[in-house]
Design goal:
Strand content: under 5%
Order of helices and strands: EHHHEHHHEHHHHH
Radius of gyration: 21 Å
CATH superfamily: Rhodopsin 7-helix transmembrane proteins
Number of domains: 1
CATH topology: Rhopdopsin 7-helix transmembrane proteins
Structural class: mainly alpha
CATH class: Mainly Alpha
Length: 311
């Protein structure tokens, strides 16, 4: 049985995070690379956030959800990359037990938030394409606010049990986390407990979140595709598809990296492979999202032009 407190029974004070010992690059070079990537993430997503919040032309459900997605990308990368940068620069690769549990909680939290947010965005595209005459009714500002509040609150609940289960394990083997941040699998490999019940609970909770979000997203796109196929003109079909192409691209990248990162038992944990997919998830998605949603978006380009002309 688990004693659901926030303190580990093994009285662990801190962990050592190995980061990237197998990479031949100098640690300072790695620091510079990750610093540039992090600055790119912050700059790209803050630009999206400012354009949407400051330009009234973009105060529509689609852009409001995109603004929230930018916030998620900033927070999720900021949960991990600043600590990684500090460890690479100072070579002090220590994280406290409480700091590790907090990092784990927020990593899962922002992952769940993105799952739910992408599902809500898929529903928004479904209403826009399949029920355009009722769009203003179904996607009013009141509905948008409710969807966003529900997304952030629901996502905050799911990581609680994950974190409590991990926090109450006994860590009696090496306290070296073979990763660059505190994730579930590398922490489970350090425990001397039988972790099968924790793994089962983790997969069940993850499946509830992932499958519910995936089902809503999938159903939305099934109906979207059916509606697009019923449009007679090629130009009409092209315009309808263009309205959801960016979101669909983002969904494919997000679910693809999440699938490889999370859907496998701890016994098959391979540190090098896990670090690669974690980097893709933590770095690639926040870097690409601003580009995916804005590169060919005429409305956003016009809003950006108006923003940079502000006195």
């Amino acid at each position: 049985m688990f004693n659901l407190s926030l303190r580990s029974p093994s009285r662990v004070v801190e962990f050592t995070v190995e980061c990237f010992p197998d990479i031949s690059l100098n640690q300072i070079n790695l620091f510079v690379i990750f610093l540039l990537i992090y600055l790119n993430i912050i700059l790209g997503n803050i630009t999206v956030f400012l354009c949407i919040t400051l330009d009234s032309h973009l105060h529509t459900p689609m852009y409001i959800f995109l603004c929230s997605l930018s916030i998620v990308d900033i927070l999720s990368s900021s949960n991990i990359l600043p600590k990684l940068l500090y460890m690479l620069f100072t070579q002090q690769k220590i994280i406290t037990f409480n700091g590790c549990m907090a990092q784990l909680y927020f990593f899962i939290y922002f992952t769940c938030t993105e799952f739910f947010l992408l599902a809500v965005m898929a529903y928004d595209r479904y209403v826009a394409i399949c029920h355009p005459l009722h769009y203003a009714l179904y996607m009013s500002m009141k509905h948008c606010a409710l969807y966003l509040v529900g997304t952030w609150l629901a996502a905050a609940l799911e990581p609680v049990l994950h974190t409590l289960f991990i926090a109450n394990l006994s860590f009696c083997s090496s306290l070296q986390v073979n990763h660059f941040f505190c994730d579930i699998s590398p922490l489970l490999t350090l425990s001397c407990n039988d972790t099968i019940h924790v793994e089962i609970a983790t997969y069940v909770l993850g499946a509830i979140v992932g499958l519910s979000a995936f089902t809503l997203t999938l159903l939305s796109y099934v109906f979207i595709i059916i509606s697009i196929l019923h449009i007679k003109s090629a130009e009409g079909r092209r315009k309808a598809f263009f309205t959801c192409a960016s979101h669909l691209t983002s969904v494919i990248i997000f679910y693809g990296t999440s699938l490889f990162l999370h859907v496998r038992p701890t016994s098959t944990y391979a540190p090098t492979q896990d670090k690669i997919f974690s980097l893709l998830y933590i770095i690639l998605i926040p870097v690409l999202n601003p580009l995916i949603y804005t590169m060919k978006n005429k409305q956003f380009k016009e809003a950006f032009s108006r923003l940079i002309r502000l006195p």
